Amino acid sequence: MNALDSKVALVTGAGSGFGAGIAECFINAGATVGLLDLNLTAAADVASRLGSRAIALEGDVTSESSMRAAVELLENSAGSLDIVVNNAGIGLPPTAMEDVSADDFQRLCDVNMRSIYVCGRVIVPAFKDRQRGAILNIASTGGVSPRPNLTWYNASKGWVITATKSMAIELAAFNIRVNALNPVAGETPLLATFMGEDTPEQRTRFLNSIPLGRFSTPADLGAAAVFLCSDDAGLITGVALEIDGGRCI
Prior knowledge:
Strand order of the largest sheet: 3-2-1-4-5-6-7
Number of strands: 7
Number of helices: 9
Largest sheet: 7 strands, parallel
Oligomer: single chain
Number of domains: 1
CATH architecture: 3-Layer(aba) Sandwich
Strand content: 15-25%
Radius of gyration: 17 Å
Helix content: 40-55%
Structural class: alpha/beta
CATH class: Alpha Beta
CATH topology: Rossmann fold
Order of helices and strands: EHEHEHEHHEHEHHHE
């Protein structure tokens, strides 16, 4: 219950879905958490439900200046940062690869990939100075076992997995651990995006590809995130853990 006692964490995209679930589990494990979202109202709504150790922050994960301002605000309120969860991400509706517009492709790259680069620019130097820190990137089973007509989304999450492993190797000398989670489709606002439409037939089709027969939930991601970001996982780095009910077997 106290796996993250006295830790300070930043969770991006925490206004809904997996980010909100991870933030809740972190707080239950004893951490103080900055809930960062482009939609401050959404982050504030989640923070009001989670209590005094939840701090709503407005920020754009693709902007270095925006992220620096958010981190400064969090550290002024709660102390030095120990954990960062790069959860913010977007999807695209099922579309033939050649029909995805250049603007949609660029936005996908910015949110799913550039955000992790920005994390490296903003947060890693301080982690190096402190000789400690945990970074958790949220990837996807799409980066391991792609679904058709989601090519550029799948590719962006494959990039996250490779970036995670490379970051882990580079930062190990500074006692900074970097891991990833690969969730299967989950009960979040992005589910309808991935399915194209949220109908009983589409849900059945997706569920039939998951041996345990259910979607992932924010609580599933939160429980795994607490472990990987805690001292209990002190020898674990460079792992991309599948939270997928067996889909990638």
